[in-house]
Amino acid sequence: MGNSKIVSFAVLLIWFNAWTQTTLQCIPSLGTQAIELGKEYLVGKESWRFQTVKFYISELTSTSAKGKVLNRIPTTLVNLEDSSSQSIGEIDTEAVRIDFLLGTDSLCNVSGILEGALDPINGMYWAWNSGYINVKSEGLYRDSTGKEFPFEFHIGGYAAPNETARSLSFSIDPKNGIPQLVIHMDEWLKFAFEKGIYSVMIPGKISAELATRVQLSIQLTYLHE
What we know:
- A hairpin with a 5-residue loop joins strand 10 and strand 11 (about 150-155).
- This protein is of the alpha+beta class and about 220 residues long.
- The longest helix has 18 residues, at about 5-20.
- It has four helices and 15 strands.
- The strands form two sheets. Strands 3, 4, 5, 6, 8, 9, 10, 11, 12 and 14 form a ten-stranded mixed sheet that branches. Strands 1, 2, 7, 13 and 15 form a five-stranded mixed sheet that branches.
- The protein has one domain.
- It has helices at about 5-20, 105-110, 185-195, 205-215, and strands at about 20-30, 35, 40-45, 45-65, 70-75, 75-80, 85-90, 95-100, 125, 130-140, 150-155, 165-170, 180-185, 200, 220-225.
């Protein structure tokens, strides 16, 4: 095959993929605002500033109307220090459902030192007996009276009854726009604040409860170009 035909075929393949796949994005948000690290956000008389936002998305699959698995996306560490990590992977436009795990499964937690997104160098691994941090958020919150509260949440743990990985499933229609998993950070953080909790650094009952609150704060929306 001549060089010109190879180039033409490559262009055609890119064009075909652009029409048959769309990129699933993950957007940590504060209300309707996408979060940027270090930026101050005013919500009424309250103020928020995030210094760290990281979490794992694992075992993500997309499925067709006939139940065929169309895509399998490897474990992704969404880390707001790297905006490219918010593009989780390509989803076939024929997908009608996505399923995934918020966090890491128990096998990952007992498999020793792993690589890639699960490499301990990413700052999301405690130790062999505690496993991975599934959700990490750090920053500063100022309430309506002007009082400041540094917050630090490292939510993890894989041992029953306080495991923190959570399964999620959403109906999806990529024809509606670019699909986005929006994590409403203020919803689960305010739940903790209202209980007087501003720091969680170990596995346990509180971590498990907050993991469920993070799960409930996630919704699927669409970005219209």
